[in-house]
Specification:
The structure is a single chain. This protein is of the alpha+beta class. It has one domain: Alpha-Beta Plaits. It contains three helices and four strands. It is globular.
Length: 116
Amino acid sequence: MQDKPWSYMNKFELILLFNPDIGNDIIKSEISNIKSKISSQAGKIVNEEDWGLRDLSYAINKYKKSFYKFIQIEISGDIIKGLNKEFNQSENLLRYLFIKVKDHQELPTKLNYEKK
């Protein structure tokens, strides 16, 4: 695969929901793993936020809470499919969502101010 210039990269916001039973060290390890996967695919981590342990709107796998992480990235859209496959295999990740955006919002986000 050829490296594309940053101007061809799409902007995405990635929201990750982690299992509430795992420790902070495991979450940091998972985030580090995700960042290295993105970087190895010619992606760029723009920013990130830790939204902490929050209530879920509905139960996921019998969990009512989850650790939320928010990451702004720039990456080719073709690579998202491969990342989806890898994220689906993670036991520590309850849910994830890639949202394509025109421009990244300025951090800290409003949700970060509402930490419980």
